[in-house]
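Still learning folds. Look over my entry:

…
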Amino acid sequence: MARKRIVVTGMGLVSCFGSDVDQFYDQLLQGKSGIVPIEEFDVSDYPTRFAGVIRNFEPGDYMDKKQARRVDPFIRYVMVAGKKALEMSRLDTEALARLDKKRAGVIIGSGMGGMSVFYDGVDTLLNKSYRRLTPFFVPFIITNMGGALLAIDLGFQGPNYSISTACATSNYCIHAAAQQIREGKVDVMLCGGAEAPISPIGLAGFVAIKALSTRCEEPTKASRPWDQGRDGFVMGEGSGVLVLESLEHALARGAPIYAEYLGGAVNCDAYHMTDPREDGATVGQCMEDALSDAGIEKERVNYINAHATSTQAGDLCEINAIRRVFGPHAHTIKLNATKSMIGHCLGAAGGIEAIATIQAIRTGRLHPTINLDTPEPALAGFDVIPHQAKDHTVDVALSNSFGFGGTNAGILIGK
């Protein structure tokens, strides 16, 4: 039996550049930085005092207002990104009424879940009483609740779960959702990730492991993937959600088709809690497996949206892996680093970067990698689009995500 083809028919996001896909990508093309000083809580004592913060965010009509006030921000981000993706997919109220809800599902994950609700709950427990703890404490900290509440609103009765694999979360979810469609179990899947980690405890946790940049005097220049002056990543937040659909189902309902999901793969370094293997061997194997899953020649890949977080080990591990997998062809591939502008959105990173990748395919323009003033010598021969956007007709794009625990995930997207 022929394998089902899978297409992207909708995209939705919440980001430091807003919640409109075209506006988001336009900001990236302009090379703007969304990194700002943190003002939401007192950071005067912290060595890192900036992040890719989302400000002035209102769920509007996408959520019941009373519920929106109660839930953790990561859930609000899921609800808005998910419903905006459906709007872009032309699955409005009338189209949703015709949809077979038993064959529509949601796989949207989070690396850290409801951090703000968790932090407030612990404060209540320690400084007031367990009797004062909200009954919503457990529901609003668990990672699957964003997708669960979205499904409740939509009536989607197909597979619904979250995957939590640190910074690789979104790509794991997209890969899993595609498998559901490929196996013929569903017609439509909402998939991606969300994260809202910018809180006192979230920031402190990454400070404790010395993972963050401390370039407080120049926040917009702190996220510098592949640059010799990089000193750690910059936290970001938000959500990125795709509507994946079988090609036959999309054509039958006259859906817009923005790109095709070609294949993907996941694996594990089995090496270290936070550091990748420097030689990139397992990351490279993940890329090889994704190519095999898609059934395409590696020479067709001509754009990579890199994981490129601005950490010492991670940036070069990925470059080593790309060189290992693609050989001489690697130097004909364009690479860029979305995190240079929006920071590292952790569990949401892959979803947001998948949208950036699809926008590159749609527009024929690649956004720049900003702050790349002194490239690592290992970048010699690679075109990583420094400083200025570039025209480029994408044939097949690879979007990479890697996370703590050695989790690796790559997805291939084409026209």
Q: What stands out?
A: The chain has a mean pLDDT of 97. Residues 18 and 103 are 31 Å apart (CA to CA). The two ends are 24 Å apart (CA to CA).
